[in-house]
Structures are given as C-alpha cells and as structure tokens.
Write a structure and sequence with these properties.
The complex is a heterodimer.
Chain A (H helix, E strand, L loop, with lengths): L2 E10 L2 E11 L4 E5 L6 H8 L7 E6 L2 E2 L5 H7 L1 E3 L12 H9 L7 H6 L4 H18 L15 H14 L4 E5 L7 H18 L2 E5 L3 H7 L2 E6 L2 E6 L1 H5 L2 H8 L2
Parallel strand pairs in A: 3-8, 3-9, 6-7, 7-8
Antiparallel strand pairs in A: 1-2, 1-4, 4-5, 9-10
Helix pairs in contact in A: 3-5, 3-6, 5-6
Chain B lengths: L1 H5 L1 H19 L4 H26 L7 H18 L4 H27 L6 H19 L22 H25 L1 H11 L1 H6 L4 H27 L9 H14 L4 H17 L7 H14 L10 H9 L2
Helix pairs in contact in B: 2-7, 3-7, 3-10, 3-11, 3-12, 4-5, 4-6, 4-10, 5-10, 7-8, 7-10, 8-10, 11-12, 11-13
The chains are: A alpha/beta, B mainly alpha.
The structure holds adenosine-5'-triphosphate and magnesium ion.
Magnesium ion binds next to helix 1 of chain A.
Chain lengths: 251, 320
C-alpha cells in the first residue's frame, strides 16, 4: 500500500468531523472519496496533507509515518493536492505558478540567485523547459506568460493540477476537480486524469460529486457520511449499497 | 536595442553616475543639494528593501526605523572605538550594522511571522518604539543628548560631502541590484507565492517560515546598512529621528510606488525626499500630507498607479 490510513479522527470544538476512518490507496490506483455535503471529505484531505493533525489514529505513506508532519514536508515526501476552492498564485504568471512547485528540487542558493553564477543559469534554463513541457500537457503553453488570475475557470482548475504535479508527487489528491464544469469540460477532465495517471505514474485519490465521472474513472470508492466510513468497494457495488443510497437521499 | 533592454539597470546606473560627476564639476549641484541627494539615496535603500517585505512577501512591517536605528548606532559606536584603518573600518562597520539588524529581525520575526494576520504589524510597531527608548536610555549611545562626532568616510574636509554622495550612490545601486535580482530568482518567486496564497504555497512544498524570515531579515539587513550610511552622512544621531513617523514614511514610499514595484519605490523615494525640502514651511504638516496621499493611493488602488498616466484623467474629465 502506498497510503494507509488507520483509524484517524479529528474533533473541532464539539464536532467530530471525522472519526475512526480507515482507507488505503495502492500504487497506480484511482480511488474516489464520496459522500454528501459536510460529510468530512475535505477534512480527510486536510488530515492527509498535515493542514490538521489527527486527534487519533495514524497515517502511513510510502512506509513512513507522516502523522503530524508539516504540510510542506508531506508534500516533499510525495503527496500533492488541489483545493475545492481554487488556490492559485493569482498575480503571478501561469508558468511561475508551476515553477514554484519545482522549487523544492532546485539547488542554487540565495547568493547564486542574486549574482547569477554557479548553478543558477543551468537550473533556471532547465526549469523553464520543464515547466513549459508540463504546461503543454494541459494545453496551457500558449498562456504561459499570462496572469494566472486572468485564466478562465476551467483552465485555472487545470493549472492547479499541473502545479500539483510539478512537485513530483507519488499520490495526487484532487478535491472536486469537476466542480463548476459543464459536461464537455468534465469529459475532457476525465481524459486528463487518466493521462496524468499514466504519464506521471501517480496514484490518485479524488473527491467528486459528479457521479458519472466517479463511476467511470475510479477503481474503488470510499463513502463518508457524518465523518464515518459507511461503505467501500468497487463502483458497481457502491451504486447498489443500501446505506449509501439512504445517505444520499438523506433518510 | 535588445542589449539596451537587457542591460537597462547597468546602463542607467552608469548614466546617473556620470551625471553626478559632471554636474558636480559644472557646479550645478552644490553642497546644499548634495545633502538632499544623500537623503534620496538613503531613502531609496529603505524603500526598496521594505518593498521586499510589504510588496513581495505581503507582510506589513511597521518598524523599519528600528532596524535602521540599530544599524546607525552600531556603526557610530564601532567607528568610535574600533581602531582600524579607514579603508577597513567602514566596510566592517557597515557589515556589522546590517548583521546586527538581521539578528534583531530574527528575534522579532521568529515568533511573529508564525502567526497569521496583523501580528507582525503590531509587533514591529512596538519593536521600533522599544529600540528608540533603549537607545535613549543607554549611556554608550549618548542617551537623550544624542551621539556626536561620528566619523566621515573621508577625512579631507574639502571633498568630504562629495565622496559621501558617491558612496551612498553606490550603496543605493547595489541595494536595487541585489533586491531586484533576488525577486527574480527562485527564492523571490517563492516569496511572491507566499504573498499570493500562503496555504497553496505550503501545499506546494514551500517551507513558509524559512522564506518569510529570509525576506524579512534581508529587508532588515538593508535597513541596517542604510542606518550606518545615515550615521556617517550626518555626523550626529538623535534617537528621535528613528520614530514611528519615519517607519510610516517608508511604508508610504512603498505604497505610493506600488507594491512589488521596485522602480516605483525608487521614484517615490525621490519624490517624497525632495518635496519637503522644496516647500520649506511644509515639514510640520508632512504627516498630514502623507495621510492624504495614502488615502488617495488607496482610492485609486492599482498596482501601476494609473493616476500618473494621462489616460486616467482623459477618461474621468473628458468622459472617455
Ligand atoms: N476548521 C474547521 N473548524 C470547525 N469545523 C470544521 C472545520 N473544517 C471543517 N469543519 C466542519 O467539518 C465538517 C466536514 O467538513 P468538510 O469540509 O470536510 O466537508 P466536505 O465533505 O468536504 O463537504 P463538501 O462536499 O460540501 O465540500 C463540516 O461540518 C464542517 O463545518
Ligand atoms: Mg469539501
């Protein structure tokens, strides 16, 4: 298992947002995390990425215990994410958004950056090349020098995925990537997710309300309701699970 | 043309230097103007370096006069007690001033940059006032009577002011060079990403605390250097000079010039240094004027200050 989540939980004030939650993601898998609004899905992402520290339980990633580690350290170890409400570096250019992600693997130091010697020229040239290639995969090469904040919504979502991939993850977490997209954009996104998985050899865990996308693309699903896992398994099984149906219908 | 564009900074720096030398020999700039020009260069260092914290890192710092004071008094004291040949003494003093400012910025920054919100503004504001009071209370700094008889760069009185000006010019140029290159390096890019979205930056693998401290302490370094230069330029120091008003003046230069706009900071530093000198009765109403200016800037809030462009007035006055 690439990711193993053992009995994690977190309490905000009196609210138990997530409790006794178990899940796993294997190498090369696309796994879905679904559930009604407020079920605790985003909170699970925040626990996995160190935004919150679980009040109970353990998270093992790539053989390492990452429980309670800092967000940037967890990213360095190989978990990258996107956000439900897009978070780009809006006043920076599209290509610079991606370049920030590559920063963690660069070596030239502050002095070399200021006086442009040593590794500076070589690394910056390589970085530019790499960043352009990455943007090309998402059809954003033409907008490389534009302000990220000026991109149309769909392209902003794509840029966020590109930036996450720039950090070189083994596991990619996508929080409602299709939110606000029309059916044709959603279909295109589905292709992109498949392509990303093969091309970048990452496992993907995604939260999504669009059931056609989830059923189409995910190999396994976990279903959350009121912070607890109510079902897990292949999409076909989940579709017919009585607990899941009643959770969604609010019974 | 391409060469000109690429080497714009270097070429304009050389042109200004030639003009400074030429004007001096033609007698166009006399000692009175030199004093103002000196202040312009010092304020350029202060504004450009503060822009790193406010404009690029996105953190409001209100105590840069404190770092400047630390630099000024460090340099004054060192040059009084350290027995070294001048050629060594001044570089050592300037460097120590910067380093001491950095150390104090770490003491302020490590606890306060961790917190989100306006804590940095409040803590740096307090810091500036505390430094001022400590200096007033200490014996070695001359207390309330001030520090007198600070060494100058050149012992030859005749050429003194002139040498001073060129030294200040070189330091201002170096500051602009270092900070503008820094903001274009990978470290500068990361610092801008923190300003734009701290959470996303951290999720992209950035050690936020390290880069915040880097930007903040770099800014303090240059403020300390500016303090040292000011001490030797002036010859005397009074703790009152480094009060809250001066910190605010620096912030105004940054805001007026545009957040994250280095050329703008330079222009604003020149403008705001000359203005009070030209209007002699103005100095006591300065803070009032600055406040009004600041409000106007906020109202017309735009990165590239459109109100300095003709189009802006055309649209408003002539109805498009
Ligand atoms: N920082 C926090 N402080 C207090 N309560 C929180 C916090 N974060 C989340 N919650 C609460 O935890 C519960 C789960 O929220 P979460 O955002 O994880 O839901 P979600 O499944 O992502 O929902 P949606 O589909 O609407 O995005 C909600 O009741 C929410 O109000
Ligand atoms: Mg959510």
């Amino acid at each position: 298992m690439l990711l193993e989540v053992n009995d994690i939980g977190i309490t905000f004030g009196g609210l138990r947002a997530v409790m006794g939650f178990n899940m796993g993601v294997d190498k090369d898998e696309i796994v879905g995390l679904i559930g009604p609004n407020g079920a605790g899905k985003t909170t699970v992402f925040n626990l996995l990425t160190g935004v919150y520290t679980p009040t109970e339980g353990k998270i093992i990633f790539d053989q390492k215990d990452i429980t309670g580690k800092k967000t940037n350290v967890i990213n360095n170890l190989g978990i990258a994410r996107t956000f439900q409400n897009i978070r780009l570096f809006k006043s920076m250019s599209v290509i610079d958004n991606v370049k920030v992600a590559y920063n963690q693997n660069m070596k030239y130091n502050e002095l070399q950056g200021v006086f442009k010697f040593g590794l500076y020229k070589k690394e910056e040239a390589e970085l530019h090349e790499k960043a352009l290639n990455l943007l090309d995969v998402f059809g954003l090469k033409g907008e490389a020098e534009e302000n990220a904040g000026n991109l149309p919504y769909g392209k902003q979502r794509k840029l966020e995925i590109a930036r996450a991939l720039g950090t070189g993850p083994k596991l990619l977490l996508l929080d409602e990537p299709a939110a606000g997209m029309n059916p044709s954009e959603t279909a295109e996104l589905m292709e992109i997710i498949r392509l990303v998985k093969d091309k970048f050899r990452v496992s993907i865990l995604l939260i999504e309300h669009d059931m056609s996308l989830v059923m189409n693309i995910c190999e396994r699903l976990y279903v959350l309701d009121y912070g607890s896992l109510i079902a897990s398994g292949p999409p076909e099984e989940i579709k017919n699970n009585q607990d899941v149906i009643s959770a969604y219908l609010g019974e | 043309m391409a060469f000109y564009k690429k080497q714009f900074g270097l070429i304009s720096a050389a042109v200004i230097l030639i003009l400074l030398v030429l004007f001096r020999y033609l007698g166009i700039i006399d000692d009175y103007y030199i004093t103002i020009i000196d202040l312009v260069f010092i304020n350029i260092i202060l504004a450009v370096s503060l822009n790193l914290t406010i404009g690029f890192l996105g953190q409001l710092a209100l105590g840069n006069a404190g770092f400047m004071a630390i630099g000024a008094y460090t340099s004054a004291i060192l040059t009084t007690y350290l027995k070294l040949p001048p050629i060594l003494l001044f570089p050592v003093a300037v460097l120590c001033s910067g380093v001491l400012a950095v150390l104090s910025s770490l003491i302020v920054g490590i606890p306060s940059l961790r917190l989100k919100g306006d804590y940095l503004a409040i803590i740096t504001l307090g810091f500036g006032e505390i430094i001022k009071n400590i200096i007033t209370g200490l014996k070695i700094t001359g207390g309330a009577r001030g520090y007198k008889g600070i060494m100058n760069y050149n012992t030859d009185f005749e050429t003194n002011a002139y040498v001073n000006m060129i030294v200040l010019y070189l330091f201002a140029g170096l500051t602009v060079f270092v900070i503008s290159n820094f903001t274009k390096s990978r470290h500068g890019r990361v610092i801008k990403s923190i300003r734009d979205n701290e959470i996303a930056s951290e999720a992209s693998g950035v050690n936020i605390m390290y880069y915040k401290l880097l930007g903040f302490s770099m800014s303090a370094f240059f403020a300390g250097v500016a303090g040292s230069l000011y001490a030797h330029h002036n010859g005397i120091l009074a703790a009152n000079k480094f009060d809250f008003n001066y910190s605010i003046e620096m912030v105004i230069m940054v805001v007026l010039g545009g957040m994250g706009n280095i050329k703008g900071s330079i222009a604003a530093a020149i403008f705001l240094t000359f203005l009070p000198q030209l209007l002699s009765s103005f100095s006591d109403k300065r803070m009032l004027f600055y406040s009004i200016l600041l409000i106007i800037v906020m109202l017309v809030k735009n990165k590239n200050y459109p109100f300095l462009k003709i189009d802006f007035y055309k649209k408003r006055l002539l109805g498009r």
